[in-house]
Write a structure and sequence with these properties.
InterPro entries: MFS_2, MFS_trans_sf, Na/Gal_symport
CATH superfamily: MFS general substrate transporter like domains
Transmembrane segments: 40-66, 95-111, 123-144, 165-185, 197-217, 240-259, 279-299, 311-329, 335-359, 391-411, 423-444
Shape: globular
Radius of gyration: 22 Å
Distance between the termini: 41 Å
Oligomer: single chain
Keywords: Membrane, Transmembrane, Transmembrane helix
Strand content: under 5%
Structural class: mainly alpha
CATH architecture: Up-down Bundle
Protein name: MFS transporter
Number of strands: 0
Pfam family, one: MFS_2
Helix content: over 70%
Number of domains: 1
Order of helices and strands: HHHHHHHHHHHHHHHH
Length: 471
């Protein structure tokens, strides 16, 4: 039987057809590109600024923190912009496509700080370029890209599948960046020259895949306002979202997920000063990411068999075990690698499910209120991501500064090594424990099928079945 394109009317969302694998892969390609800005900056900005540009780690950490706070605020508005966008290309697609080349160029500029500017001029340059990336162009691009999970389909399995494929591509990019960047920089002559050529390559790898995603995927699942009393204004959207407990829990979950990632920014330091070999970072990154890439191939089947919430909780329990191993054997390379592998497998279910959880919460809020929030729900969780990742990057800089890190030194004081261990093991361990607590309250899965059926029938807002869920 021929499957036709879904239609959208002014009252409800009709069911969408199953996505083809080619379109899922095209969607996933976008996160591959995004990480050649996001992960490249998160993993190497501090060591580039301290060891090449000569700016203190504490100063860079503060710039990152301030920019990410303003970034989180800009995310709040970007979701409303997307929800109110009416372009021939779609709601989210034009933002993904047109911001991609600018994002690639700015990423290149961030790793090319002009030496002639002097110390104050360098700090101003870094602050301006970093803020343009994080507060404006990455925000517009990433909020739009993330919301495509909702705009492309309302099918639960497809949403989990999109999340898995997205993060397979993302983790391939992260693994490539964290494994090969130091080799590329050295291979292209080291120093500023090495960073310039590497950043140019990464700028292209950022822009081109995102442009492909923005051009080729399709938006089919567009929620329309239920009636004229529910205009998608910023004030109304914020009100309905922040009154919903499941949205708040999801926001907290995103914040914790990215606060956990202090390990990304400290791996190069840990490899250099605990194991006395910078290229050990490649082993650490491979152990942390390759099992996750493989595990994400099976995540949709695991979620389908056990349910999203149960599979996530089982995975987080495995992650706890891994951190106990790493705590006990923090200076044994073999045991640390084993712990990283176990941890990667444990985190697979949650990473695969994050986008699906956000899309489901968007459906819940729309069902309850009749207010379309498909873009805004992703913008606010993106704010959690930005604030969380900004904090984790800043925390790494602050921790190194407090620990007495000496840039370019052959050895570091014990306090600096302790700060590195905290960022790689102890702080992420705490975040995983807090995620387990958060997931215990995120129990919407039992009634979401009924909610989606009511949405398909146009029973949203005041027309929904009131007794289905006690908010």
């Amino acid at each position: 039987m021929e499957i036709k394109e879904p239609k959208v009317n002014d009252h409800h969302i009709v069911n969408t057809y199953k996505l083809k694998m080619s379109e899922k892969l095209t969607f996933g390609l976008g996160d591959f590109g995004a990480n050649y800005s996001w992960t490249f900056i998160a993993s190497f900005i501090i060591i580039y600024m301290t060891d090449i540009v000569g700016i203190g780690a504490g100063i860079i950490g503060t710039i990152i923190f301030i920019s990410r706070i303003t970034d989180g605020v800009s995310d709040l508005f970007m979701g409303t912009v997307i929800d109110n966008t009416k372009a021939k290309m779609g709601k989210a697609k034009p933002w993904v496509f047109y911001t991609a080349p600018i994002l690639g160029l700015l990423t290149f500029l961030l790793f090319n700080v002009p030496d002639a500017l002097g110390q104050t001029g360098k700090i101003v340059y870094i602050a301006v370029v970093y803020t343009l990336i994080s507060t404006i162009f990455y925000t517009a691009n990433n909020v739009a890209y993330s919301s495509l999970t909702s705009f492309m389909t309302n099918d639960k399995k497809d949403r989990v599948s999109l999340g898995s494929i997205r993060f397979i591509f993302a983790n391939i990019a992260v693994l490539s960046i964290t494994t090969f960047t130091t080799f590329l920089v050295d291979g292209f002559g080291g120093g500023q020259q090495g960073w310039t050529i590497t950043a140019a390559i990464y700028g292209l790898l950022c822009a081109l895949p995102l442009m492909a995603t923005g051009w080729f995927v399709k938006e089919r699942n567009i929620a329309e306002k239920k009636n004229d009393q529910h205009k998608a204004s910023f004030t109304i959207i914020m009100k309905v979202l922040f009154k919903d407990k499941y949205f708040i829990l999801t926001l907290v979950l995103y914040l914790l997920w990215y606060l956990r990632q202090t390990e990304n920014g400290v791996r190069v330091y840990y490899a250099t000063y605990v194991f006395d070999e910078p290229n050990v970072m490649a082993l650490l990154s491979t152990a942390a990411l390759l099992p996750m890439i493989i595990g994400l191939l099976f995540a949709p089947k695991i979620a389908g068999k056990f349910g999203v919430r149960k599979s996530v909780n089982m995975g987080l329990a495995i992650s706890v075990i891994s951190y106990i191993i790493m705590t006990l054997f923090s200076e044994s390379l073999t045991m640390l690698l084993i712990g990283l592998v176990i941890n990667a497998l444990g985190l697979v279910p949650l990473q695969a499910a994050l986008s699906a959880i956000v899309a489901d919460v968007g459906d819940l809020v729309y069902w309850k209120t009749g207010v379309p929030v498909q873009g805004s729900v992703f913008s606010l969780t993106s704010a959690g991501m930005k604030i969380g990742s900004g904090l984790q990057a800043a925390i790494v800089g602050w921790a190194l500064s407090i620990g007495g890190y000496v840039a370019g030194a052959s050895t570091q004081p014990d306090s600096s090594i302790a700060a590195m261990k905290t960022m790689l093991i102890y702080s992420p361990f705490l975040m995983v424990v807090l995620m387990i607590i958060t997931m215990a309250s995120l129990n919407y899965e039992k009634f979401i099928p009924i909610v989606k059926r009511e949405i398909q029938e146009g029973r949203v807002g005041k027309d929904r079945t009131e007794h289905l869920i006690n908010y």
